[in-house]
Amino acid sequence: MANIPYPESYYAASANAAPPRPALKGDVETDVCVIGAGYTGLSSALFLLENGFKVTVLEAAKVGFGASGRNGGQIVNSYSRDIDVIERSVGPKQAQLLGQMAFEGGRIIRERVAKYNIQCDLKDGGVFAAITAKQMGHLESQKRLWERFGHTQLELMDQRRIREVVNCDQYVGGMLDMSGGHIHPLNLALGEADAIESLGGTIYEQSPAVRIERGANPVVHTPQGKVRAKFVIVAGNAYLGNLVPELAAKSMPCGTQVITTAPLGGELANSLLPQDYCVEDCNYLLDYYRLTSDKRLIFGGGVVYGARDPANIEAIIRPKMLKAFPQLKDVKIDYAWTGNFLLTLSRLPQVGRLGDNVYYSQGCSGHGVTYTHLAGKVLAEALRGQAERFDAFAHLPHYPFPGGQLLRTPFAALGAWYYGLRDKFGY
Predict the structure, then answer these.
(1) Which sign does the torsion angle of CA 299, 305, 307, 308 carry?
(2) CB contact at 8 A, 366 and 302
(3) Is the pLDDT of residue 310 over 70?
(4) Gap between the Cα atoms of 334 and 336, Å rounded
(5) Collapsing DSSP states into helix, strand and coil, what is residue 52?
(6) H-run or E-run covering 99
(7) CA distance linking residue 316 with residue 23, whole number of Å
(8) Which of 230, 251, 257, 293 is the most exposed place for a label (fewest CB within 10 A)?
(9) Which ranges carry the FAD dependent oxidoreductase domain (predicted)?
């Protein structure tokens, strides 16, 4: 079987050293088989190992190969649909539970980094930047909403104040969340994998799950082996393919594009983002950016529905970067890549159980860095018999895309075109 390497990205080029992990050959027995070594799978495995379970992780490529190792590296709180939207959908009791969890993922990341000494360039501070007065009004109500759920590390910024933290004249104001922040996402995943192995967990790379034999004791098959388990956690997200057909119908892989400049040097880099916070704007089709530890600018944005790889990523993203920072017009782009995330129609994560012993979490819809770390904890709790928080997610309503898999891409692209127009005209 072909060895699948990391895609060429800044993160892969600057990754910490990692041991080679073998492919699964033969049969193994375990308490829990986790499918996927991205954040959802790694977080689940780590919480389960800390609670005495025997855990085996199967990864089709390499640890953090998917969105976990390719994303913008931003710690952003809450979900892709905020708590007020959830409240209107499911009522106050369930929304209260989900609201209390909306800020937990970032805390889990910080706990992991501290407990296992993970070297991933963790920095505090994330900015939501408003381009219009209407977006600023939304941030004001978002601050009130988040504070209702006990989240207090927030500061509204007027035009003068936001210029102190982002040297860009596009913004009328913004909100600073000091419990947000940024990380080197692949190094976070690699550090979590090391922690799993330090607790006796096993990770097999280049070992795709090709079939799940369901039943009282499920068996997960790979090309050269199989894992017998008491429980299975399906954590493949946008890279799951059709392994579990009933999950594929309710979600759609989407690509987001990222570029990284050549090193800018301290003076230029610090003039762009003097406090080294990460930034995302408030558009529906948003742009996001931050500095790396070696003073490059990482800039991402755009969505490709259906997860095709666009031919020229730099041509899509560089104009967005220059609109924000025209002073970078002569700067070379060293890396450009795409990574897939999984979109749901509701833009809320899908969590549940198939039968008695196959659990899943998927569909972060672009808010994956924090949510996946929370999901790992919630899944681990459910396997230990504490299902209240798991059920709060599992009871969220979900719908298949209209027209099934054939029409889901044009349907979502039409929606994106509509919201793109709204962004453009400031609705």
Answers:
(1) negative
(2) no
(3) no
(4) 7
(5) coil
(6) helix 92-101
(7) 37
(8) 293
(9) 31-381
In the 8-state DSSP scheme, what is residue 22? P
- Predicted model pTM: 0.93
Q: What is the DSSP string of 110-166?
A: HHHHHHTT--S--EEEEEEEESSHHHHHHHHHHHHHHHHTT---EEEE-HHHHHHH-
Which is it for strands 358-362 and 225-234: parallel, antiparallel or unpaired?
parallel
Judged by phi (left if over 0) then psi (alpha if -120 to 50, else beta), residue 237 lies in left
The pLDDT tens digits of the residues spanning 119-137 come to 999 999 999 999 999 999 9
Q: Are strands 202-204 and 55-58 parallel, antiparallel or unpaired?
A: parallel
Structure tokens at 103: 């800020």
User: Which phi and psi (to 5°) does residue 80 adopt?
Assistant: -65, -25
Judge whether residue 411 has pLDDT over 70. Answer: no
In terms of Cα–Cα distance, which of 193, 129, 216, 195 is closest to 166? 129
DSSP-assigned states of every residue in 314-372: HHHHHHHHHHH-GGGTTPPEEEEEEEEEEE-TTSS-EEEEETTTEEEEE--TT-HHHHH
Rounded to an integer, what distance in angstroms lies between the CA atom of residue 7 and that of residue 19? 18
> Residue 424: pLDDT above 60?
no
Question: CA 78 → CA 149, 202, 307, 393, distances in Å?
Answer: 11, 31, 24, 13
- Measured between alpha carbons, how far apart are the two ends of the chain, in Å? 51
pLDDT value at residue 417: 46
- Integer-rounded Cα Rg, in Å, for the chain is 21
Q: In terms of residues, how long is the chain?
A: 427
Residues contacting 363, CB < 8 A, separation 6+: 237, 250, 251, 342, 343, 344, 348, 349, 350
**Residue 30, SS3 per DSSP:** strand
pLDDT tens for 339-370 read 877 777 777 888 999 999 999 998 876 678 99
The two tokens of residue 331 are 């700067």
Instruction: Quote the CA–CA distance of 358 and 340 in Å, as a whole number.
Output: 24
Domains of the chain: 10-70+186-251+346-408 (3.50.50.60)
d(CA 7, CA 10): 10
- Please give the Cα distance from 309 to 331 (Å, whole number): 24
pLDDT of residue 340: 79
Q: What is the residue whose two structure tokens read 């550090």? A: 191
C-alpha torsion 48→54→58→64, nearest 10:
40
